Amino acid sequence: MPEQTTSQPYKISFLTGTAIVIANMVGTGVFTSLGFQVLGIQSGFALLMLWMVGGLIALCGALCYGELAAAMPRSGGEYHYLSQIYHPVLGFLSGWVSATVGFAAPTALAAMALGKYAASVWPAVSPQWLSILVVLLLTAVHGASSRAGSRLQVVVTAIKVGVLVIFIGAGWAVATPQPLAFLPQGNLDWQQLLSPAFAISLIYVSYAYSGWNAAVYLTGEVANPQRNLPRILLAGTAVVLFLYVGLNFVFLNGTPMPKLAGQLEVGYVAASEIFGAGVGRLMGAVIAVLLVSTVSSMIFAGPRIIQVMGEDLPALRGLAVVSKNGIPVRALLLQTALTLIFILTSTFEQVLLYAGFILSLFTFLTVLGLFVLRVRRPELSRPYRAWGYPLTPLVFLALSGWTLVFILRDKPLESRYGLATLAVGGLVYFVGLRQRKV
Question: Transmembrane segments in this chain: where (predicted)?
Answer without folding.
Answer: 12-39, 45-68, 89-114, 120-140, 152-175, 195-220, 232-252, 282-306, 327-345, 351-375, 387-409, 415-433
